[in-house]
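BUG: 3D viewer hangs when loading the predicted structure for this chain

Environment: internal workstation, default settings.
Expected: structure renders.
Actual: progress bar stalls at 90%.

Input used:
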Amino acid sequence: MRFLLAVASALAAPLALVCACGESRRPIGEECLRDEDCLSNVCAARACVSAPSLVTGANSPPPDEEPLIPTGDGASSGTDDGGKTDGS
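Structure tokens produced before the viewer hung:
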């Protein structure tokens, strides 16, 4: 009987350590106090929330670029530098 009690206590100690070191972070919607408490690493208003998106869409899209395509008809575009428009 003492042997079984010794074996049970010997197995209980490592099992308790494994459980104590396990994942304790909470899923979205659960209560939290810090960002580290959540799986998403974001705690807002004492609840785990999803991480904010990287692109907010608040900025306007960039303007469309118009490529400089030679027409081949020999008409000059008003530049004497071979078509360069950056001033060099």
